[in-house]
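S.,

Sequence below, as promised.
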Amino acid sequence: MTYKNDAVVRRKDRAVTDEKWIVDLLNRAPFGVMATVWEGRPFTVARNFAYDPEKHAVYLHGAQKGRTYDNVQAGDRVCLNVSEMGRLLPAARAMNFSVEFSGVVIFGRVSLVTDADEAKHGLQLLSDKHFPHLEPGKDYEPVTDTDLKVTAVYRIDIESWSGKQKKVADDFPGAFYFEEIGD
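The prediction came back faster than expected:
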């Protein structure tokens, strides 16, 4: 299924339109940065998330108080940025230094999930993504109605998404990973 893509990617050579690639990145990325707006001011927060292909939506969670909770109550427009950093790419001139990356930007509408079954579904997706080796009912107690009284579950209904990637040849001179600095 194809979804509207209203994001303009300036560097067409880096645009990724393959939906499988986008979904694969969403499934492996541990977290994303969600942007909301409060009284005309942007607010971003890092959140773990899980993509639900059946609903073409993203689930996140947090507390039932605080800025994210208030922002979602005040407005439903949202953006989620998910990215991975690759190797750092030195160059002869500082202005040409670069980095490999992969990223997805999602635009949509966010809402507080009020249906208990859907909230439990969203939280289970998060658990399955981040703790795939653990089984509910065996390794941990599944989410209860009592848990939902203090946990806010959000669903982003995706209206559009776009992917972007910069990757260079494996033998790029001097390329290294950030973690290698100081080794």
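The chain has a mean pLDDT of 92.

Coffee later?
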